[in-house]
Structure formats: C-alpha cells, structure tokens
Write a structure and sequence with these properties.
single chain; about 750 residues; alpha/beta; seven-stranded parallel β-sheet; 20 helices; about 30% helix
C-alpha cells in the first residue's frame, strides 16, 4: 500500500503530495489523516507529514514511513475541509491541517507535544487495621500513616504539605510495603474555581419564540439553512441560543457557539454553566494554558462535551454529531484571521453546516452589511427582535460637538456634558463606562521646534508613549525604546505629547474625580491569564465606579448598574483608509451604547466627536441600523464594494524596497494579461498605507470582482510564478481582508 503524504512545511514548493511505502508493521494502523514521521530527501532527521490518500502504484522508488502517532487520526472530513481551505485562502495544505490538531501538538517533533497531565496519588497498601504499626519507629512515618487512614487516595503533594513530611518518608513507606503510589491522569479544568448557581430557562417573548421555532423546525427536518437573528442590544439573543442548544442535547447532538472576544468567553461560559452544568461544556480560547486547551480538546474528542464555546479557532474542534452552529456578534472583525491560513470562521461554519445539513445561526444588533444584504435578498432567513427582553428602554444618546467645546475654552478630554453626567452618576452610586479605542498615554510625541516625530525603527508608524513603563512602544511590531527628553535632530528639549490613550484618560479621571474608583481594560492590562474575567468581575461585583477601556469593553457585556456610557473620541475609526470605516464606527458606537441601562434603570450615552454630522454618528445616535444600512448600501453599490464584489488584496513585502516594487509590477502585468477586465477592476500597485512594517517594505494590489473557481486558479498560477522568480519577497493573497493597512 502506498500513502500520499503532505509534508508539514510552510515552503510553497513542498505543498504537494509525496509517495511513501506503508511497511507491513504499520499496515493495520494507518488511515487517511494519520500523522506520520518520514525520512525526507537527504535530511538526517525525520520530517512530519500527514497521510491524505492511498494508491496502489507509484512511478518513484519509495522510502518507508518510519513511525505513526498512535491514537490520533484526522477524519476524512477534516482532510476535505483542509483541501477546500487551501484553495480558498491560497495557503499550504499543511497550514490548514494544523488548525485541526490538538492544541500544543503543532510542532514538528511529536515527542515534544503537550501530553495528558498525570499526578501521583497515595493509597494504604493494606486495610488500615492490618498494618503492623508497631514496627514503625519514625514519628513522621506514623503521622503519614494515620493521616492516610482518614484521607486515603490523597495527592502525594498534598500528603507532603498536610502531614508535614518529605518525599524520602513517602519513598521509605512505599519500599516497606505500607503504601502504594498510583499515577492517574487528571484533567486541567478551566472551570475549577467557578461557583455558579444553576438557573432556569426564561419565558420567551413573542419575537423570541418566532425566531426559536423557525430555527427548531430546520433542526427537526435535518436540513441546512442560514439564519440571521437581528436584535437590538439586550433583546435576548442568548436565551434563544440556550433553548436551541437544549433541544440539540435532547437529540444527543453537539453544538458550537463562537464569540468574538476572549473577554466575552467567561460571561458566555457562566451563562451556559448556570443552565447546563460544566460537565457538558468545553471552552477553547487562547487565554487558557496549552495544557488546559489540550484537555478541553480531548474532552471534545472523547465525546464527553457536547457544548463547545470559544473564539474563532473553536470551529475546528473534533466535535461529534454536530447539530447546531451559532456565531454571536457575527459582525465582529475578529472572526477573520490575519495570519496563515487567512480564513473567516463564518466561511468555515457555513461549509460545515452545509456538509452536515444543520442550521447556522448568526446573531447581532449591528449585522455586517454583507450579512444583512444576504438576508434582504432571502439568501438567508432574517429573524428580527425589536424589543429588549426585559422591556427596558434603549438609552438616551446625546452627541457633543468637540469643536464647540474647544471654542468655549474646554481643552480637557471630557466635555462639560460628560463631566456633569459622570459627577451625577457618582452621586447616584451608579456605574459608568468610558470608551476610547486607543491604548497608551499619548499616541505620538513631536519636537515643537523642528517637527521631528518619533517613529518605530522597524515600521513607518509613530511610537505610542506609555506612562506606567515610561516607554515608547510600537503597537505593530512590539518595538520599545526609552522615553525621549531631547530631540535627536535639533537637540531641543521642547518635546510635546500629542493625542490621547486609555492610560492618559485614566490618569485624568483620577485627577478630576479623586473620590471615584476606576479600573482599566485594554491590551496592556489583560496580558495575564484570566485577567479579562478578573477585571470584568471586579467591575461588576466590587462596585467600581468607572470602567475605562478599548473595544473589548463594548461587546455583549451585561452590567446591571451601568447607566452612563461616554465615548471619548468617536472619530477614531472614521479616519482610516478602509471602505468599512463608516460601518465600523456605527457598529462600535451602537454596541457601546447598548451597555447602558440594560435593566430597569434609564441609560444615558454621550458621544464626543469632531464630526457630529457624519451619517454613521447620526444613525448611532438614533440607534437605527436600518437607516444606516439603507444609506451605506447605496454607497457600496455606487463604489462597487462588498457585498457587490469581493476584495482580493495582494500584499507584497521584502526587506529590499526595489524587489518589492519590481515584483509588484510583474504581478500587475500578469493580472492584466490573465484576468478579464470587464469582470475585475485591478488597481495599479502602490505602497501600502503603512509602507514599512517589521523592517519590511510593503506594497499592495487590490482587485474588485466576484471570486470564483477561475480567478482562484489564475491567482494560484501567478503565485507559482512568483515563487520561482524570487525567494527574497513574500506575497500573500487575502480575500475580503479585515485590515486594509
């Protein structure tokens, strides 16, 4: 038998199958999806590969497969999905296969993979009454024996601590036949310290019931259908998810629910544990330790968990008998990967749902324009929730013109209206959220004498000042340098700090309201494990007055005591080189507004902006998605942007600027010669908006048109030519990229 093997490599030339002979000793154990060790070329060490098929004959002289990783095998469905992803996202097949491996096992050397966690437990060898204790002269040995009589089967580490004995005492007792040490596998449990009271399902409103029954009908018929639950903030989308998953469990089916932010995962997990208990639930996200992720993955693989909650990569979990896929906050950009493979979790979910004939449910208060357009065209089923589930009112929204504030002599980060509202909220003992989508203290520093701006040495981007560390940092490559007091160009000491970030906002709030307790949530404060959950729980339960944060505080969170939300700079997402700037501004403002007044208390939102007449801000003020959609879709149609086309971005980068320029022009010529101009609009190659990043020069080519098999094949051919011409440049192709920079 001959195996077709894909080498685990990012080298494009190796993205093809190699034939290997299956030796007799492995004949009964290999299958499609097996992970194997193989000799390759003249290399002295073994390479890792994956079997993706078998055949009877080969025209080559073959080497044998050396070893196989027992107990692990990808399914044929996994391999087919990986092949589909490889074609769709222009990447190596092995890059896609690795997405489906157990966490911590993607390294080439299998022996270094994450393993099960085994601990040592101590048991008395005989019945406690039969032990000949008179032969034991050591007081410590007797203490250990007496402790074990009451606590037989205790962890060795716990016995050492609680009985105050050493390992040598335990070893002596084992050697003399008094105890036995048994090693057992234990599961690393991310729910270990959670104490959550069980709850009961709520009575659905009429709108919720219509949506629930519509999806349930599709589940009963076992057919694929895509649904969009378009419900205002607080309309009870999660309760619909919970009751649908309960039905899936009754059918012995599993469910996947994806959430966009790690900070949302604990909240969602808590809701699900309260309803179903932790036994049926597995959670997958990057803030778990590798060991915890591995154990959660194995819990799914062993069919012990039927509800999988996680970020985008959870879509690849080895789930059994899948009956339902839910994507919450479907508009969020984090469902699109910016690293190889550049997949969109919604595409993968749709692929799986179609293959398995199950419903795919998308939910959002501010759906992606493309998603809503599909629903309007009846390519998916639109289910609308117009009322909050607890009948509370939407918050009142006020827009403050910062130009007028400046003319009135107010140079602080807070408008008079926002200052007064915070002051009143503190008096009433209610909570406030302040949103600013920039971290750090100052966004750039400049010499007032010569205009010199401090930039990253690796990227053509200004460094951000961080007060606590007194460091200048690049938020793109991670470069750091000491704060600058003297201009390196003109030697002036007139260094001025410009712009604002969450650190500076926190600093000013503590000055203006010294009596208020504050907590900050941004990338700088959530680097430690469980820090997302700890910050949110502290804000919710410790009566913290003000939560200051970036976009991670605005999505899906439920804080009953929050009655005021302040948006410090609504324009931050408007002034970017991206056709979705208006959409993202509207979405984030509407989402952050939805955090206020979610119980029976009136919520208030104050949006500060220099562009009060911008239509996305006007629509966010009215919290009217339909009005925003109708205007935005006209612009998209006129300018030929998604959903009326796909965006295909060629990104070319190299440490040598001339190579980037030459290769970009060569690709452009190939595209013009091979792609029909009536179907596709091809822009000339230009430097990217950030033209240098991580010491590499960056150019881009943008194509507008509907992606089909023919254009995919043409692009594959062009890429193959690029790889043959030079290895000094990197070319990536991204379909509908989330980042146009």
């Amino acid at each position: 038998m001959i195996a077709e093997v894909i080498i685990n490599s990012t080298v494009k030339k190796l993205d093809r199958t190699f034939d290997y002979n299956v030796p007799v000793k492995l004949a009964g154990t290999v299958c499609v999806g097996s992970r194997v060790q193989i000799p390759f070329g003249s290399m002295k060490h073994l390479e890792e590969g994956f079997i993706i098929g078998f055949k009877e004959k080969s025209k080559y002289k073959l080497k044998d497969i050396e070893t196989i990783q027992e107990g692990f095998c990808l399914s044929e469905e996994n391999i087919e999905l990986a092949k589909w992803m490889s074609r769709r996202y222009f990447c190596n097949l092995s890059d896609c296969i690795k997405m489906m491996l157990p966490p911590g096992t993607t390294t080439k050397v299998i022996k270094n993979r994450i393993r099960e966690k085994n601990l040592k437990f101590i048991y008395l060898k005989k019945n406690g009454e039969e032990l000949e204790l008179e032969k034991i002269k050591s007081e410590k040995q007797l203490r250990a024996i007496n402790f074990l009589k009451e606590n037989d089967g205790i962890l060795q580490t716990e016995l050492e601590v609680f009985a105050d004995i050493s390992k040598s005492i335990i070893n002596t007792l084992e050697r003399n036949g008094y105890i036995e040490i048994i090693e057992k596998q234990v599961q690393r449990n991310p729910f270990l310290n959670k104490k959550i009271e069980r709850d009961k399902e709520l009575v659905l409103t009429n709108e919720q019931k219509i949506a629930y029954e519509c999806i349930l009908e599709t589940m009963d018929k076992k057919i694929f259908k895509e649904f969009l639950i378009y419900g205002i903030t607080g309309s009870g989308k999660t309760e619909i998810y919970l009751q649908l998953i309960k039905k899936a469990l009754e059918k012995q089916q599993s469910s996947i629910i994806l959430v966009p932010e790690i900070s949302l995962t604990p909240q969602m997990v808590n809701r699900f544990i309260a309803r179903f208990g932790e036994r049926n639930i597995a959670v997958l996200h990057s803030k778990l330790s590798l060991g915890e992720r591995y154990d959660e993955w194995q819990k799914i693989n062993k069919k012990e968990a039927k509800i999988i909650i996680g970020a985008r990569s959870a879509i690849f979990a080895p789930i059994y008998n899948l009956g339902l896929i839910i994507i919450d906050e479907e508009h969020d950009s984090s469902y699109k990967s910016e690293m190889l493979p550049r997949y969109n979790a919604k595409d993968i979910a749709r692929y799986l749902a179609q293959k398995r004939n199950i419903p795919l449910v998308l939910g959002s208060a501010t759906p992606e324009i493309t998603t809503f357009y599909k629903a309007k065209k009846e390519e998916s089923k639109l289910l609308t929730l117009t009322k909050r589930a607890n009948l509370s009112n939407l918050p009142k929204v006020k827009v403050v013109d910062l130009r007028q504030e400046f003319q009135n002599g107010n140079n602080t980060m807070l408008s008079i209206d926002l200052y007064n509202a915070i002051k009143e909220n503190l008096k009433r003992k209610k909570q406030t959220i302040l949103f600013l989508n920039r971290r750090g203290f100052s966004t750039f520093i400049m010499c007032r004498d010569c205009g010199y701006t401090v930039k990253c040495k690796n990227c053509n981007i200004s460094l951000t000042y961080h007060l606590k560390e007194n460091q200048l940092k690049c938020h793109y490559c991670g470069y750091e340098q000491n704060n600058m007091k003297v201009c390196p160009e003109c030697k002036s000491n007139k260094i001025k700090y410009f712009g604002t970030g969450t650190q500076k906002l926190e600093h000013q709030i503590n000055k203006i309201f010294p009596e208020a307790s504050t907590i900050r949530m941004d990338v700088d404060t959530v680097s430690k494990k469980n820090s997302h959950e700890e910050i949110l729980e502290k804000f919710k339960n410790d009566n913290i007055d003000i939560l200051i944060g970036t976009q991670m505080v605005v999505k899906g969170h439920h804080f009953p005591k929050v009655t005021l939300v302040g948006v410090i700079a609504a324009d931050a997402s408007l002034n970017i080189d991206d056709y979705r700037a208006n959409e993202r501004t509207f979405q984030i403002l509407t989402q952050v507004a939805g955090r206020a007044g979610r119980e029976n208390l009136q919520g208030n939102v104050i949006i500060q902006t220099y562009n009060p007449d911008n239509f996305s801000i006007e629509c966010a003020k009215k919290q009217n998605y339909d009005m925003f959609y109708e205007r935005e879709i006209i612009l998209r149609r006129q300018l030929k942007y998604p959903p009326f086309c796909d965006i295909i971005l060629f990104g070319i980068s190299s440490t040598e600027e001339e190579i980037v320029k030459q290769l970009s022009n060569n690709i452009y010529v190939e595209l013009i010669n091979n792609v029909h101009e009536e179907e596709f609009l091809i822009t000339k190659p230009m430097p990217a908006p950030i033209d240098k990043m991580k010491s590499k020069y960056r150019w881009r080519i943008i194509i507008k048109g509907k992606v089909n098999d023919r254009i995919v094949e043409k692009i594959q051919q062009i890429l193959q030519k690029c790889y043959k011409v030079t290895n000094k440049a990197r070319v990536v192709v991204d379909i509908n990229p989330i980042n146009m920079l």
